[in-house]
Design brief:
Elements (H helix, E strand, L loop, with lengths): L2 E9 L6 E5 L5 E6 L3 H11 L4 E6 L5 H10 L17 H11 L7 E2 H7 L6 H9 L12 E2 L12 H10 L24
Length: about 190
């Protein structure tokens, strides 16, 4: 079984330590939070079946890390220029590409995301693909909310999702949109 080696950076942010994973070519492969490192590694194993993704710590700041620092300093659009590479199924990659097309400062529902990929009955499958997104923020799964405008389904936790949406001006700074009971666990209803 071949091993894939990726570079891992640990970057302080206003939301806690962020894990930035790039390959030797500088492509962003994963972005997650330190308290979800085990989940990130599991997602990577699932995305690259038959290969053993290995992470090698580096202290050299990648272009992805530099862009993420700019993002947290207020340059929201900087994430659009980041080159990414994902594994996953063709359906997952289709959903992740659609996530990237959600404009800054806007949110959409899971149903709307399913419609955007031309499969309006695949709401649950879209939710699962969204939850398997390996590159948080850059493939902005946090911009997907419940049809009733509730905050649901962010693996990094609802407080981070709320902060990101407020940072991107998709929610007013003093907003407390409804949260579902499933949102408290970071999972979609029925998942």
């Amino acid at each position: 079984m071949p091993a894939l080696t990726f570079l891992l950076e640990r970057v302080p942010t206003p939301l806690g330590e962020m894990l930035v994973v790039t390959d030797e070519q500088g492509l962003l492969r994963a972005l997650d939070w330190h308290d979800h490192e085990a989940r990130m590694q599991e997602l990577m194993r699932r995305q690259y079946p038959g290969e053993r993704p290995q992470l090698r710590a580096t202290s050299q700041a990648s272009s992805a890390t530099q862009a993420m620092r700019a993002y947290f300093e207020g340059d929201i659009g900087v994430i659009h220029a980041l080159a990414v590479a994902t594994g996953g199924t063709p359906f997952q990659r289709q959903v992740w590409a659609a996530l990237r097309a959600i404009p800054d400062g806007q949110t959409i529902s899971y149903g709307e995301l399913a419609q955007r990929i031309g499969n309006p009955t695949a709401v649950r499958a879209v939710g699962l693909a969204n939850g398997a997104n390996p590159i948080s923020i850059v493939l902005p799964c946090h911009r997907v909310i419940g049809s009733n405008r509730s905050l649901t389904g962010y693996g990094g936790g609802l407080e981070r999702k709320r902060w990101l949406l407020q940072h991107e001006q998709a929610l007013p700074a003093d907003a407390s949109p409804p949260t579902s009971s499933a949102a408290q666990t970071g999972r979609l209803p029925g998942f």
